[in-house]
Specification:
heterodimer; A: 450 residues; alpha+beta; 16-stranded antiparallel beta barrel; four-stranded antiparallel sheet; 4 helices; B: alpha/beta; six-stranded mixed sheet
Chain lengths: 450, 158
């Protein structure tokens, strides 16, 4: 009966499709009529696609769950009541945007960028890594995202990234690989490789440029492999959930895991710092009050131990006089707080960080504040944005982020959504740097999902 | 009166009727419906928003909530987007992000007709959906929002 209904709908749609052009020809269609016809044809195509998807879906469900025909639709029969009191079937909604191959759903994300800087020196944190060139094309990250539901509470999630490096070589990074178990809304476990939940940006956008408004991430939120400041990856356990709090909408995050951050210096000198992180603990909370839908306020506390182990081409760099060796351990504490509002076409992100690195057994410590603020507003398909960021890393030779120093400045531009899958972004950046000339840049990007 | 006049009158009548019915539909409340055996009877507006935003994913008894929605252009979709404070494009991007974050399995199921909504509520006993109050069918249980049924003053979903 249901299939018959769908077939009738398709027939009706085709009839309309056949009649509308005929009548429009007879009446010498005006531009507005043509527009209406185009919209109708589009709607019919969408309906046909939806009907096709649903027919497929129903076939799967019938083969899995319905031994009897679903013909009886008038009121619940006793047998139906019994069926309804049985455990609920596994929810498996499948819109056509996600691709399903034998129970594995996947989606891809990619980007093609062009960047011009007003210097020939490479600058890793902004993506322009080709030495001797002021402007270059690059593809940054291409990601494949796969999920599979194992039971109604357990699932697997993975994110495989192909990241462009020097000389157009690509490295593969299993950025996330999680076995997830959602006991209920209050207790959700994830085991495996995760992105540390330090701050909002990491949680909200992960690594898909298509999801981001801007062409790049704020410097403080860049991945460590791109010269970012934070330990962004770890292997361990992450627990999240809602705390019963009525209209406050309180949620918690707790993580315990192992990282091994290797971050290249921002100036592309080829020198990297292998931090040899010890196990970390990260705890945080965020609230989404009912009174202001779209508002999210959160904070987190992260702690681990790291080393200042500088390497050049895999070999330790010679130590300068007065510089502590790689055996010295630093206690690293990262405190984050954020206030974010995303609703009614407005995106207003504000995050602050304090990164403290203290020599264990000594009094030497470095406090390094950072923040960014980003505002954008959707105007039809266009989303103009403005961002201001500030990082004040200590440039003392004993500081682990000494290559970063003081950097601040605005970025502005716009994102234009060509359709639901492709966005074009243009962004201008101005970065003031302590002890170096100001850096200006233009970034153009096609970000897409498929 | 000639055949031409009768045809013109009929066409005019149909046009007026379609305008009147359209006006009535626009003024109608949107009901929140669940399967008839779902024990839920009332939701706060905050909980309703959290459910349709995928932030609240299980009923108080622990059963997973299955969202069933209508496609773009339907009054139920308009009410849903109004509830979430999003445009259609933002809604699609929001759900892509939810899945990418690991917060959801997929974008909510979209069905193209009320009959299929009813069928979905039968297939998924823990589903929830929005239905134009005039289209509520047997087997659909209407639940209150903040203690108000559709049609009551102060009912928030239109």
């Amino acid at each position: 009966m249901l299939k018959g209904g769908i077939r009738t709908r398709i027939d009706c749609a085709l009839l309309i499709l056949a009649l509308v052009p005929a009548s429009s020809r007879a009446q010498t269609a005006s531009p507005s009529d043509q527009e209406t016809i185009t919209q109708l044809v589009e709607q019919i195509k969408q309906l046909q696609q939806q009907d096709h998807d649903l027919l497929e879906r129903i076939k799967i469900l019938e083969s899995k769950q319905l031994p009897a025909s679903p013909a009886a639709e008038v009121g619940p029969s006793p047998s139906q009541s019994a069926e309804q009191t049985a455990p609920p079937p596994t929810p498996e909604a499948l819109p056509h945007e996600w691709h399903d191959v034998h129970g594995i759903r996947w989606r891809g994300f990619g980007e093609v960028d062009y960047q011009v800087l007003n210097q020939r020196k490479p600058e890793l944190g902004t993506g322009g890594f080709v030495p001797g060139s002021q402007g270059n094309f690059y593809t940054n990250e291409f990601g494949l995202f796969l999920t599979s539901r194992l039971t109604d509470k357990a699932s697997v999630l993975s994110e495989i990234i192909f990241e462009e490096g020097d000389a157009q070589s690509y490295s593969v990074d299993l950025r996330r690989m999680l076995l997830k178990y959602d006991w209920n809304d209050h207790l959700k476990f994830s085991f495996g490789r995760y992105q540390t939940n330090i701050g909002y940006y990491n949680w909200a956008f992960r690594s898909a440029a298509w999801l981001q408004t801007t062409a790049d991430r704020p410097l403080v939120m860049q991945y460590a492999s791109d010269g970012g400041l934070l330990p962004t990856q770890a292997i361990g356990v992450s627990v999240t959930g809602a705390i019963p709090s009525e209209k406050l909408g309180l949620n918690y995050i707790a993580e315990y895991g192992s990282s091994d951050t290797i971050r290249p210096e921002l100036n592309g000198s080829g020198q990297v710092t292998d931090e040899n992180n010890g196990n970390h603990v990260n705890a945080g909370f965020f609230l989404r009050p009912d009174a202001v839908p779209g508002l999210q306020i959160g904070a987190s506390y992260y702690h681990d131990q790291i080393s200042h182990n500088d390497l050049l081409s895999g070999a330790p760099t010679p130590l300068l006089p007065g510089v502590l060796g790689p055996s010295t351990r630093y206690g690293q504490t990262i405190v984050n707080a954020y206030v974010v509002y995303v609703a009614h076409g407005i995106e207003f992100l504000n995050e602050g960080f304090l990164i403290r690195q203290t020599v264990i057994g000594g009094s030497l410590h470095f406090d390094q504040p950072a923040f960014y603020s980003q505002f954008s507003k959707q105007l039809g398909r266009l989303r103009p944005f403005f961002r201001y960021q500030y990082v004040n890393a200590n440039s003392n030779s004993n500081a682990i982020l000494d290559d970063v120093g003081l950097r601040y400045g605005p970025s502005f531009g716009a994102r234009f959504d060509l359709n639901n899958y492709i966005a074009f972004k243009a962004q201008l950046d101005h970065t003031a740097r302590a002890g170096e000339p100001d850096l200006n840049g233009l970034q153009l990007q096609f970000a897409f999902t498929f | 009166m000639g055949v031409k006049s009768i045809t013109t009158l009929l066409l005019l009548g149909l046009a007026v009727l379609s305008l009147v019915s359209r006006g009535t539909a626009q003024a109608e409340d949107i009901a929140v419906v669940v399967s008839s055996n779902n024990p839920a009877t009332n939701l706060s507006p905050g909980d309703l928003r959290k459910i349709f935003a995928g932030e609240k994913r299980s009923w108080p008894g622990g059963q997973p909530i299955q969202l069933v929605t209508r496609g773009s252009g339907c009054p139920e979709r308009v009410a849903l987007l109004k509830l979430l404070g999003m445009s259609e494009g933002e809604y699609k991007m929001y759900w892509t992000a939810q899945v990418f974050r690991g917060e959801a399995d997929a974008e909510p199921l979209i069905v193209p007709s009320v009959g299929m909504q009813k069928e979905a509520l039968r297939l998924f006993p823990w589903a929830i959906s929005l239905v134009n109050v005039g289209d509520v069918k047997s087997g659909m249980k209407v639940i209150k929002i903040d203690g108000r049924m559709p049609g009551a003053s102060g009912y928030p979903l239109h």
